[in-house]
Amino acid sequence: MREVQWPVALTHARPDGTQLRLQPIRRRDRAAWTEVRGRNATWLRRWEATLPPGSPPGPASFAALVRLLVGQARQGRAMPWLIHLSEGADQPFALVGQLTVSGIVGGSAAWGQIGYWVDQRVAGRGIVPTAVAMAVDHCFGTVGMHRIEIAIRPENAASLRVVDKLGLRHEGLRPRYLHIDGDWRDHLVFALNAEEVPDGLLQRWERLRG
């Protein structure tokens, strides 16, 4: 696996004329991020990571969150992107979600995990599957990773549709795997290896959509 280079932005023009951009998270995104997160707080709460009792406190502000994520990115352990959508070639980009590749390990493992959230206003438009495919292709093609995992709560039907659309392999249940919404929650694990998508996941996804 090659060294993770950061920051890096990824842009993809979709067949419907819209464009998606994975943009590295920055302190200047605070206002847009806070607005979208605040508007979606109730919708996202059931799927949000929380800290177990007795854990050190997490970031107390958006600036602190950015410092934490950027620090991990510079160490090659994460790639924290915000998802931006443009409704057309001449339209501005607006923040609609977040996608992070985390837990990156090199050596004989060469793998990482993907997590994401999206604004409810644009849910169901294929934005998350496209963003995941963009990130996976970067991980496999540019970084040289071999495996990507996505862990999803069994109750999260919308997220389960994402991995189903992309054709990730279901590998089973991990009981009480992650601390989510105030307790340890079971998760289903889905994975993809680089050799399963020799032409890229994004190309396969766009072909299936077409």
From TrEMBL:
InterPro entries: Acyl_CoA_acyltransferase (IPR016181), GNAT_dom (IPR000182), N-acetyltransferase (IPR051531)
Keyword Acyltransferase appears in the UniProt entry: yes
Annotated keywords: Acyltransferase, Transferase
Domain of life, source organism: Bacteria
Protein name: Ribosomal-protein-alanine N-acetyltransferase
PROSITE patterns: GNAT (PS51186)
Keyword Acyltransferase: yes
Family the entry assigns: Belongs to the acetyltransferase family. RimJ subfamily.
PANTHER family: [RIBOSOMAL PROTEIN US5]-ALANINE N-ACETYLTRANSFERASE, GNAT FAMILY, PUTATIVE (AFU_ORTHOLOGUE AFUA_3G00765)-RELATED-RELATED
Pfam family of the protein (one): Acetyltransf_3
Domain N-acetyltransferase: 49-195
Cellular component terms per the entry's GO annotation: cytoplasm
GO MF annotation list: protein-N-terminal-alanine acetyltransferase activity
